[in-house]
Amino acid sequence: MSTPDTSAGTAGAHFTPTGSFAAATDRRRVVFATVVGTTVEWYDFFIYASAAGLVFGQLFFEPAGPQFATILSFLTVGISFLFRPLGAFIAGHLGDKHGRRFVLMITLVLMGAATALVGLLPTYDAIGIAAPILLILLRILQGISAGGEWGGAVLMAVEHAPTKRRGLFGVSPQIGVPLGLLLASGMMALMSILAPGDAFVAWGWRVPFLLSIVLIAIGYYVRRRVDESPVFREIAARREQTRTPIVRLFRRHALLVVLAALIFAGNNAVGYMTTGGYIQNYSTNPDGPLGLERGPVLWAVAGSAVTWLASTWCAGWLSDRIGRRTTYIIGWVLQLVGVFLLFPLVNAGTVWSLFAGVAVLTIGLGFTYGPQAAYYAELFPASIRFSGVSISYAIGAILGGAFAPTIATALVQATGTTWSVTWYLAGMTVIGLIATLLLRDRSGIPLGPDHEAEQERSPIVGASRA
């Protein structure tokens, strides 16, 4: 039987003179701050992907021609993923040496500044080739920020959580993703009403980007009021920070990083059909098979974010009762069903059938995303946990979502059918399932530095546990 985890469970009181009530209050503050901060971060990330699917091809890459301009526009979405590992390496190093909260403040400001500047960027007609170059540079900054944000948010939530409620607490950074998608799609849909037609292309798309300034100010204020993770405070008090956490991570846990990355890749490739703007572009393209109106499609995607949020929360809650691994396996099966139903429903050609397709898809997505925060945190030792969580996530994002919209666009253009995309997404789902089956469940393992030896034992099936 495991020794109770005093650093990550009821242990908030260990550092808080007012006892367990103050600890519980701090935990609620952490959950709120995590939800707000990650929602703002992903709102910034998703309005870019949405704009890439709707207008960036026309505004920044028009000389390439209609079809290739769309591919180039989606490539800028993917390029940011290539820089997520850089953000993860930097944030992991800083987070394992200087704390989770410190990194979260930096990533929030960096993401917000890059997003606001996109909203002010002149188009190709105004400044020529400099416009797409500047757009790509700002997207790279977004990628660096996103690479560092998620790991810090996850550890702040999970390391503050009671041991038996880590899955539920870990949902807080996870639901920031569907909330960010809901907010981003809702703002884009609202602007399509307030600035319809040519006005949306001329200036309407810029407003959601500029709104980021207000949201970042709110997120920064909320995060400043949150205490550092109790696990890191204990590590810092003992002066046990690892000098080179990344070197130690890859020396001892390289295969674990790869498997954890493949788990996220299986979820991320499928999720980026909506969050990466592909479904929005496919269904609204006037030269495409559907030609639906932009506004209703954006509202349908926003509605699917609600079902995604609900299934993500349910999965986190369920993982505390049946284990992370079992919850994931259920999620992969549901996701596979959603993948095969997606395009038959979308291709029915109505907004309601499109909503049904993406909503069904999000049920499986939620079940393969909700347990991830707690699952990742329980895989890695305390002293290198930030690096392990962030880098696994960033690599998984490259393997999964980075170029999923581009791949989907190219597959349809090459084959003339969306079934090619379906089989691609089904393959990524099966890869995620296999990676899950190769890892043991470590639900409830102590997270504090007192249990580093237990945390160092490999969770890979068949590996030595000595």
Describe, in plain words, how this protein is organized in 3D.
It is found in: Cell membrane. Residues 30-444 form the Major facilitator superfamily (MFS) profile domain. InterPro entries: MFS (IPR011701), MFS_dom (IPR020846), MFS_sugar_transport-like (IPR005828), MFS_trans_sf (IPR036259), Sugar_transporter_CS (IPR005829). This is MFS transporter. The protein has helices at residues 20-60, 66-82, 84-98, 100-119, 124-127, 130-159, 166-194, 198-204, 206-224, 230-237, 245-271, 278-284, 294-322, 324-346, 351-367, 372-379, 385-399, 404-415, 419-437, 452-456. The model is unreliable at 1-22 (pLDDT under 50). It contains 20 helices and no strands. The protein is globular and about 60 Å long. It has one domain (10-456): Growth Hormone, Chain: A (Up-down Bundle).
